[in-house]
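U., I forgot to send this yesterday:
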Amino acid sequence: LTPAYPRSQHPADVKAARIADLFQAQSFLDPSVLGTYPEELVEILAEHDLLPDSTAEELEVIREHTVDFLGVNYYQPLRVMAPRFAKHPDSPLLPEHFYEPYIMPGRKINPHRGWEIYEQGIYDIAQNIKENYANIEWMLTENGMGVEGEDKFRVNGMIQDDYRIDFVKGHLRELHRAIEDGANCKGYLIWTFIDCWSWLNSYKNRYGLVELDLETQERRLKKSGHWFKELSDHNGF
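Result:
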């Protein structure tokens, strides 16, 4: 889940964020949890003749087979604004015709990956699930920090990834705040245990608590791995 935030409270920006959320979150959450598709999304697709064919029986299957819990992945927010340019009349419809990305000045950034770090997104996701999805049981199944060129942080044979420890701490603080405020979250899983291969960029960015040497296949704990063990042992920090 990637919460959509408008550039401003101008109605055009607010509408852009609402439609962004329709496409990238509610289109999955609503049928999975509530058993129906968002009415506004259905109207948009129907208006542009893109609504898939469906039968009453198929819609009934969706209504009767909602999920029991959610696995939620979160890395960064989606900041959007109203599109600056009108859609070309001959171009196919894309979600981006309703909104475009907005780079917020002064945002907190992961300089080794280029993604925004916004810990409060976890809290906002939790509030959304609580208020709009019957506070269904959920678990944070992916959250972590990718870093390119992590070897430069090696001291005495161990990668000193304090940036990853700080990242997890910040997000766990927001998750704890959400649980204190009634979120039905049952756990937190980090992405990832060991440096892993990515569909997007192979091994360029490392996410693990454990370093994987691609040449020798040796596994070495990073500083964050030792810290995460203490976190697990004490159920907090």
